[in-house]
C-alpha cells in the first residue's frame, strides 16, 4: 500500500520558519501593491505579520499559506489607506471646503486678490490631474457626496472609493506642491 505524501501544514512547521520563508515574497508583494512606498509597505508588513501570528491557529489549509498571508496583507493595506484618508481628510477637506465657501463681500481688496490667486492655482492643479482623480475630488468636495453615494454612482465598493480618493488627494497635493515651487521660482 502506497503512502500519500504528507501535506505540510502549520502543525508541522513553526511560525519562525514560515516567517523566514515568506517575509521577502510578502514584502515584495506589498511594495508592488503600494506603488513602491517602502515605509507604508513596512508598516503594513508589520501589521500583517502580527495578524498572522495571532491567527496562526485559524489557518484551515483552504489555500496556500502565502495566499492566506496575501489576503491578510490586502486587508491591512485597505486599513492603512483608510486610516490615511481619515488622517488627511482632517487637513485637506476643510481647507478645500473653506476656499469654496469664502465670500468676497467680507474681504479687503488684497484678500480678494489672494483668494482669486489661490482659486486659480487650485483650478490649474485640478485640471492637471487625470480625469478619474478629478471626478472623485469633484464628487466628494464640490458636490459633497458621501463615499457611499460615490461608490454607488461609480459601481465600486466604498473601500475602493476610500483608497482612490486617498490617491487622488495625494496626486493633487503633489501637483499643488510642484505648482507652488514653480510659482516661487518665477517670483
Explained architecture:
The protein is an all-alpha fold and 187 residues long. It has two domains: 11-81, RNA polymerase sigma factor, region 2, helix turn helix motif (Rna Polymerase Sigma Factor, Chain: A, Orthogonal Bundle); 102-186, Arc Repressor Mutant, subunit A (Orthogonal Bundle). The protein contains seven helices and no strands. The N and C termini lie far apart (86 Å). Residues 4-12 have low confidence and may be disordered.
Short description, anyone?
The chain has seven helices and no strands. The protein is mainly α and 187 residues long.
At CATH's second level, what is the architecture of the largest domain?
Answer: Orthogonal Bundle
Structural class: mainly alpha
Most strands sheet:
none
Q: What is the terminal separation in angstroms?
A: 86 Å
* Mean pLDDT over the full residue set: 78
Beta content comes to: under 5%
Low-confidence region ranges: 4-12
Q: What is the CATH superfamily of the largest domain?
A: Winged helix-like DNA-binding domain superfamily/Winged helix DNA-binding domain
Report the order of strands and helices.
Answer: HHHHHHH
Morphology: elongated
- Name of the CATH class of the largest domain: Mainly Alpha
List the total number of helices.
7
Q: Please indicate the count of domains.
A: 2
**Share of helix, binned:** over 70%
Number of strands: 0
CATH fold-type name of the largest domain:
Arc Repressor Mutant, subunit A
Radius of gyration: 23 Å
Amino acid at each position: 500500500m502506497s503512502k500519500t505524501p504528507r501535506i505540510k501544514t502549520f502543525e508541522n512547521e513553526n511560525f519562525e520558519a514560515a516567517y523566514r520563508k515568506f517575509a521577502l515574497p510578502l514584502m515584495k508583494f506589498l511594495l508592488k501593491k503600494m506603488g513602491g512606498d517602502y515605509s507604508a509597505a513596512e508598516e503594513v508588513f508589520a501589521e500583517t505579520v502580527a495578524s498572522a501570528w495571532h491567527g496562526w491557529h485559524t489557518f484551515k489549509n483552504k489555500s496556500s499559506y502565502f495566499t492566506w498571508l496575501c489576503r491578510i496583507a490586502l486587508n491591512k493595506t485597505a486599513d492603512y489607506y483608510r486610516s490615511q484618508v481619515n488622517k488627511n481628510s482632517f487637513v485637506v477637506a476643510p481647507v478645500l471646503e473653506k476656499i469654496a465657501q469664502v465670500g468676497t463681500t467680507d474681504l479687503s481688496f488684497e484678500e480678494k486678490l489672494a483668494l482669486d490667486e489661490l482659486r486659480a492655482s487650485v483650478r490649474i492643479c485640478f485640471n492637471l490631474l487625470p480625469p478619474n482623480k478629478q471626478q472623485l475630488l469633484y464628487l466628494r468636495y464640490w458636490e459633497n457626496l458621501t463615499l457611499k453615494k460615490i461608490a454607488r454612482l461609480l459601481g465600486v465598493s466604498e473601500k475602493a472609493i476610500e483608497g482612490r480618493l486617498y490617491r487622488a488627494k495625494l496626486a493633487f497635493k503633489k501637483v499643488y506642491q510642484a505648482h507652488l515651487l514653480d510659482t516661487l521660482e518665477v517670483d
